[in-house]
């Protein structure tokens, strides 16, 4: 067995071989075997297993003695069932099929004709493979021997009897009878580009063919005569040409009558028969053309000379055998060309051989194989058109394509997101390279969405959101209703009450469960809740992608032209890719023109962000194609075999540097200039290589396209200019509407003509026209002079606006597109006051629409444009419009991180507001901005302002130096009102919604939040006043849950059993009100922060509170409340630290969150996380964090108490675990001073500080060898006992451990051992692994002091295990060393 090509193919079952009996029997075919015997092949014979071959001739069975047939038949027994047909009869059968089809139908159907051609090319390829093998197996063959072996009757064809076999691919192999040689052909869809095209489109006929050659017996080689052996492949190529001419024509040579007829026809037809081999050659031309090459001397002699074989086998020049040209039989030009070039090899002397003659047999076989691989290109008539480039064919990018595919496979297999960036010049094939992998992604069950950034767009965020919205459609289309509903339910579960935010962002998500979606209803207040900003958008998209993408269904997001992207759009992509949880499985592919970006471009910052978050990034550079690949591209576009267009490709490569788009544009320009023509008679492309070589061409493809556009009709140029104003594509609805106006009446016709001229494409669904390339759009836009561009845009927009107004049509769908055109002329081209107001309102509506879709950059742009059109006295003339615009601008500027501008705008609103409600709305947003940006001085000013507002509403307050007794009295008064009401009464009483009361509640909400920062001594007082007013006025508003839980916090502040339980009751009622009234959803982060951070933590397991903080953090991000989200993240981390979460996991989480906080400039969170990060590193044992994550002064604007209290508590924790008790004592004293000065929500911190301070105080006394127990210990122990009475889960182990240490210090050993065991058991039950380790460590030290080394060693070993699971390498090492010392002492 000789394997010609190694290609994947399907395993097949073997069966006996059957020989055809239903082929024509009119002309018996005779051939001679190597022994000179004649054998009739016109029969049906079958190989019996182990028996002789039986021939069936005229109904008589005879035993076949011919060894050659036996060997061939035995070989075919190891192949699939096949019909073996002599080649002559097979060709006759094929011709008969064609004649029958012509007789029964009007012409030969295209598909049947193509199938017949493929069958004949397949047989030709097989014969070529047999001759190639024969050439190497019998290297010294003579011409006489070769002529005998290459007889038509020495070959038989194997045809599949399976009727289900693909049309055209029925040929399974070819046999050579003498010597016995077989080639088995295994054809399969190409496992590459064409494979996927066939699977998806079902239109590609191309196959890869594997030739497996079997030699059935040793060759009996004829001994060549001296001088008779072949020096090259010339004669064997000629012999193959003779065979192939017969295969495609059914004639081996033209008899004398045909010669005479041909001569007569030549005299009358003249030029029309210029392709006949019989025709004398014309004089050579200077230009070298594909179908008109220089005729050689041998071609001139072809009508009067042929080869004759003498008795001794030598060749002499005599009359050449004559053949009718194949095109007269209707053969495809490429097939005719192959056969002609093979026959051209008849001349032994290369000097006189035509240039296109084959140099080797292998070259001819390669061409035949190419015809089978790409029949859609080389086996069709192009009809004067370039062959459309197949989506799966790309040239010179195999390495890059492989890298891209491998990266996608990594994402699909690992489930982790990656980025793949492709850079290169315009036209280098970046987009084409990515598109070549689309079918592979779909075949791997991936979901593909793409978008293209636009130079003309003011906001690029819409490109990303539009692509993700398309993903919703794709999910709905690809999934069954049951699967879609399952995804819907997961999304509803993920987003909860904030699901409406996802719908606002990606409206097409409703398609996942349309029947369920119709039942959803939210009032307008709910749908508009939440601040629109970058953080909320990122959180929504991150969680959405986490649900819809996975390793089983990865998502490929392709965004083209990143050079036009903005920081917001790239930041959103970064958030999805850098999801710490790895929930999303996204393969992001981006392309950009590296010659159009400066070193400071945002894309390089995008690289840095991805690297900082450990997102794998692959980058590749695309340059021009090599010359061979340019040749392949031209060959495929022209449908000309690659070897025949080498001269043209060489010139094109030199002029275009291999830029793919430039190459194709240049080829089209050659066609238009006439240098490249289609010969209708030859049915092939011809060119004048000398003229092309001297053709002057601009080095800029843009100039080439522009020059071509200037020759277009005025209507087409107008269409191109209008389309270019909308970017890379124009919606067909807009084009249709513009066509209905007098100014642009010919727009649709012009666009359709542009499609015909290959400047634009119409998408398959007929939704929009798109430019075929960015350079085409750039050239079209360049048709508009620079001075007139703004006016041109403005005229288009105003024309559309007038049209919609005259037709009374809804313009909301195209509102953004219309106003974007108009804004090119704002404000300079708008002169009429009424028009200015009208356009301002349109911009306001466009900005409002953009805000609802989270496209706040576009909203900012539209709102700024609207304000620029307002009259100088707009606050008086158009107050409502002005208020709406300024509020919208403030929100958009804040979301766009333009903090100073947002505050200035809000101050203007306050200045011009005509009612307290308007001013309070401005103050609310101003407070949110100040809280998030840590503006302490501005907060104090705002605090005074709100106090004055409340005074104006009838609320009076005492001076700042309010006595503590007065504060306590106010708290008791408010508490009594809660206590006397039942739960049901409290839940049902809030029904008053008068505007003055609502305004007071809103003002109190701002005042309480501000007092917590700038007036901490008055915090409890203002909370109590707020609660009292709420119950007295029975106000119904979204702030009610906040009132309840805030008052609960101050009741739980002192850990008093009675007050704390009342506070817990009030807090749970606040939660119930929150959950029962969807309109209060925006208050959830604040309510959860207060309840689970300061109330429920005293009664419920700390781990449960951590889960609630996580949920509130995510919701805070979803609704844009980043300040609350930051607070929840802070509490979540510190609670995890106290609950014994593995330190290594906690370190990774803090690292990710800290990078994200730095990236988004959340200074408060950066300050907090930096402290926690260093604390965790210290506990682990790594005290050298990277410089980028070191504690710094980024949070210096945050109030001093908040920063210091966090630092003190964390330093106390680390010092207590590592035995630095003097440091713990110092920190505790600083805390005592701070707590007196800042009486706020410090209950939980008091518990932990009491715990560590008490342990350290006893240890210090022990070191001093003092026998006096400090009185402070009892105070600290009372705090822990009070906390343990409220929650044994959270605090019992701490109280027991401090008791144990006290008993141990007082030598109450039995009591101490009981308390140690109690503390260890409680810590283990509550899963506080670190405090279990601490209790074991102290218990071991207690027994060590008692010289009970056995128990001490057991406790140290247990502590070592606990610290190991906790992740503290340093404490683990300490316990290991302790155990060694105790072990040595014991031994």
Write up what this structure looks like.
With 1387 residues, this protein is an alpha+beta fold. 58% of the residues lie in helices and 8% in strands. The chain has 60 helices and 24 strands. The longest helix has 28 residues, at 110-137. Mean pLDDT is 79; it is low at 1-79, 190-203, 219-229, 254-321, 517-530, 1185-1199 and 1236-1241.
Average pLDDT works out at 79
> What structural class do you assign from the helix and strand content?
alpha+beta
With helices defined by DSSP (H or I, 4 residues minimum), what is the helix count?
A: 60
DSSP E strands, number: 24
Q: Strand content of the residues, in percent?
A: 5-15%
Radius of gyration: 44 Å
Largest sheet: 7 strands, mixed
Report, as a whole number of angstroms, the end-to-end distance. Answer: 78 Å
Tell me roughly what share of residues is in helical segments: 55-70%
Strand order of the largest sheet: 1-12-11-10-9-8-2
């Amino acid at each position: 067995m000789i394997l010609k090509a190694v290609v994947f193919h399907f395993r097949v079952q073997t069966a006996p071989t059957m020989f055809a009996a239903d082929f024509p029997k009119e002309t018996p075919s005779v051939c001679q075997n190597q022994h000179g015997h004649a054998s009739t092949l016109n029969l049906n014979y079958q190989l019996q297993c182990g028996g002789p071959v039986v021939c069936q001739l005229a109904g008589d069975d005879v035993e076949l003695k011919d060894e050659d047939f036996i060997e061939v038949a035995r070989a075919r027994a190891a192949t699939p069932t096949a019909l073996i047909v002599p080649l002559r009869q097979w060709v006759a059968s094929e011709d008969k099929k064609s004649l029958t089809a012509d007789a029964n139908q009007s012409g030969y159907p295209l598909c049947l004709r193509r199938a017949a051609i493929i069958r004949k090319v397949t047989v030709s390829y097989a014969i070529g493979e047999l001759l190639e093998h024969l050439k190497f197996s019998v290297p010294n063959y003579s011409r006489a021997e070769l002529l005998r072996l290459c007889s038509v009757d020495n070959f038989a064809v194997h045809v599949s009897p399976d009727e289900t076999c693909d049309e055209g691919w029925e040929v399974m192999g070819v046999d050579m009878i003498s010597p016995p040689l077989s080639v088995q052909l295994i054809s399969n869809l190409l496992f590459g580009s064409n494979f996927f095209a066939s699977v998806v489109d079902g239109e590609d006929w191309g196959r890869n063919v594997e030739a497996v050659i079997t030699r059935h017996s040793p060759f009996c080689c004829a001994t060549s005569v001296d001088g008779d052996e072949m020096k090259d492949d010339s004669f064997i190529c000629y012999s193959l040409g003779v065979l192939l001419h017969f295969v495609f024509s059914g004639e081996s040579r033209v008899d004398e009558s045909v010669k005479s007829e041909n001569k007569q026809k030549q005299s009358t037809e003249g030029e029309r028969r210029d392709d006949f081999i019989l025709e004398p050659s014309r004089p050579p031309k200077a230009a070298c053309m594909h179908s008109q090459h220089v005729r050689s001397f041998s071609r001139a002699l072809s009508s009067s000379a042929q080869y004759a074989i003498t008795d001794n086998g030598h060749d002499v020049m005599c009359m050449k055998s004559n053949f009718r040209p194949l095109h007269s039989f209707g053969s495809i030009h490429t097939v005719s060309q192959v056969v002609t070039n093979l026959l051209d090899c008849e001349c032994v002397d290369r000097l006189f051989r035509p240039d296109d003659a084959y140099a080797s047999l292998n070259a001819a076989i390669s061409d035949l194989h190419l015809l089978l691989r790409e029949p859609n290109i080389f086996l069709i008539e192009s009809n004067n058109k370039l062959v459309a480039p197949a989506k799966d064919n790309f040239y010179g990018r195999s390495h890059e394509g492989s890298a891209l595919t491998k990266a996608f496979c990594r994402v699909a297999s690992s489930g982790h997101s990656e980025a793949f960036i492709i850079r290169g010049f315009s036209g280098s094939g970046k987009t084409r390279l990515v598109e070549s992998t689309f079918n592979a992604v779909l075949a791997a069950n991936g979901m593909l969405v793409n978008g293209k950034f636009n130079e003309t767009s003011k906001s690029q965020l819409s490109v990303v959101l539009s692509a993700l919205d398309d993903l919703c459609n794709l999910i709905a289309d690809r999934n069954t209703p049951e699967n879609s509903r399952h995804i819907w339910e997961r999304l509803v579960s993920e987003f909860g009450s904030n699901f409406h935010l996802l719908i606002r962002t990606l409206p097409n998500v409703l398609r996942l469960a349309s029947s369920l979606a119709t039942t959803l209803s939210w009032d307008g207040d709910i749908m508009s809740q939440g601040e629109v900003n970058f953080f909320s958008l990122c959180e929504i998209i991150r969680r959405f992608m986490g649900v819809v993408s996975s390793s089983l269904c990865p998502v490929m997001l392709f965004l083209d032209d990143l050079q036009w992207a903005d920081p917001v759009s790239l930041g959103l992509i970064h958030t999805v890719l850098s999801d710490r949880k790895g929930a999303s499985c996204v393969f992001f592919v981006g392309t950009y023109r590296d010659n159009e970006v400066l070193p400071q471009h945002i894309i390089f910052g995008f690289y840095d962000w991805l690297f900082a978050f450990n997102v794998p990034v692959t980058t590749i550079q695309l340059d021009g194609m090599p010359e061979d690949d340019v040749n392949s591209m031209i060959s495929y576009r022209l449908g000309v075999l690659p070897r025949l267009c080498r001269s043209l490709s060489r010139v094109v490569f030199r002029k275009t540097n291999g830029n793919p788009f430039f190459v194709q544009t240049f080829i089209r320009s050659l066609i238009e200039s006439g240098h490249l023509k289609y010969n209708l008679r030859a049915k092939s492309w011809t060119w004048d290589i000398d003229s092309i070589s001297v053709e002057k061409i601009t080095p800029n493809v843009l100039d080439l396209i522009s020059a071509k556009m200037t020759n277009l009709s005025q209507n087409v140029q107008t269409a191109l200019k209008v389309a270019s104003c909308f970017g890379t594509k124009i919606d067909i609805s807009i084009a249709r509407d513009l066509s209905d106006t007098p100014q642009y009446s010919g727009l649709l016709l012009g666009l359709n003509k542009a499609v015909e001229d290959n400047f634009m494409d119409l998408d398959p669904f007929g939704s929009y026209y798109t430019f075929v390339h960015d350079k085409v759009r750039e050239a079209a836009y360049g048709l508009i002079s620079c001075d007139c561009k703004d006016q041109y845009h403005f005229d288009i927009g105003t024309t559309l606006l007038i049209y919609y107004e005259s037709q009374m049509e809804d313009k909301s769908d195209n509102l953004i597109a219309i106003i974007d055109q108009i804004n090119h002329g704002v404000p300079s081209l708008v002169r009429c006051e009424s028009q200015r107001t009208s356009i301002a309102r349109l911009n306001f509506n466009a900005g409002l629409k953009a805000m609802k879709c989270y496209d706040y950059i576009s909203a900012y742009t539209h709102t700024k444009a609207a304000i620029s059109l307002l009259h100088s006295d707009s606050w008086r003339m158009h107050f409502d419009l002005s208020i709406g615009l300024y509020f919208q601008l403030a929100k958009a500027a804040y979301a766009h991180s333009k903090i100073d501008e947002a505050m200035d705008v809000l101050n203007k609103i306050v200045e011009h507001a005509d009612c307290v409600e308007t001013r309070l709305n401005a103050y609310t947003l101003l407070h949110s901005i100040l809280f998030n940006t840590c503006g302490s001085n501005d907060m104090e000013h705002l605090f005074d302002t709100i106090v004055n507002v409340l005074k104006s509403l009838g609320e009076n307050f005492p001076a700042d130096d309010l006595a503590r007794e007065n504060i306590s009295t106010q708290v008791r008064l408010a508490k009594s009102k809660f206590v006397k009401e039942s739960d049901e009464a409290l839940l049902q009483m809030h029904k008053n919604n008068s505007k003055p009361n609502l305004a007071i509640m809103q003002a109190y909400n701002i005042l309480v939040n501000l007092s917590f920062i700038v007036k901490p001594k008055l915090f409890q007082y203002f909370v109590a006043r707020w609660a009292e007013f709420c119950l007295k006025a029975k106000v119904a508003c979204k702030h009610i849950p906040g009132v309840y839980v805030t008052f609960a916090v101050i009741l739980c502040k002192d850990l008093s059993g009675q007050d704390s339980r009342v506070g817990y009751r009030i807090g749970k009622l606040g939660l119930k009100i929150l959950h029962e009234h969807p309109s209060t959803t925006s208050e959830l982060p604040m309510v959860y922060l207060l309840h689970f951070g300061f109330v429920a933590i005293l009664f419920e397991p700390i781990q449960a509170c951590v889960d609630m903080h996580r949920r509130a953090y995510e919701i805070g991000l979803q609704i844009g409340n980043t300040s609350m989200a930051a607070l929840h993240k802070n509490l979540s981390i510190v609670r995890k630290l106290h609950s014994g979460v593995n330190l290594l996991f906690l370190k990774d989480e803090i690292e990710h969150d800290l990078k994200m906080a730095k990236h988004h400039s959340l200074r408060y969170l950066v300050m907090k996380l930096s402290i926690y990060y260093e604390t965790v590193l210290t506990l682990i044992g790594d005290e050298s964090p990277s410089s980028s994550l070191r504690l710094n002064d980024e949070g210096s604007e945050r109030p001093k108490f908040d920063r210091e209290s966090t630092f003190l508590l964390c330093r106390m924790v680390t010092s207590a675990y590592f035995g630095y008790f003097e440091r713990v004592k110092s920190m505790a004293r600083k805390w005592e001073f701070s707590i007196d000065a800042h009486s706020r929500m410090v209950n939980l911190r008091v518990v932990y500080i009491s715990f560590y301070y008490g342990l350290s105080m006893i240890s210090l006394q022990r070191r001093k060898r003092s026998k006096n127990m400090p009185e402070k210990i009892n105070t600290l122990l009372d705090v822990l006992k009070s906390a343990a009475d409220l929650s044994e889960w959270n605090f019992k182990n701490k109280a027991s451990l401090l008791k144990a240490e006290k008993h141990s210090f007082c030598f109450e050993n039995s009591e101490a051992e009981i308390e140690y065991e109690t503390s260890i058991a409680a810590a283990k039950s509550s899963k506080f692994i670190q405090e279990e380790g601490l209790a074991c460590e102290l218990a071991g030290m207690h027994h060590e002091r008692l010289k009970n080394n056995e128990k001490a060693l057991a406790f140290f070993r247990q502590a070592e295990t606990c610290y190991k699971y906790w992740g503290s390498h340093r404490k683990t090492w300490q316990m290991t060393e302790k155990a060694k010392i105790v072990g040595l002492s014991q031994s």
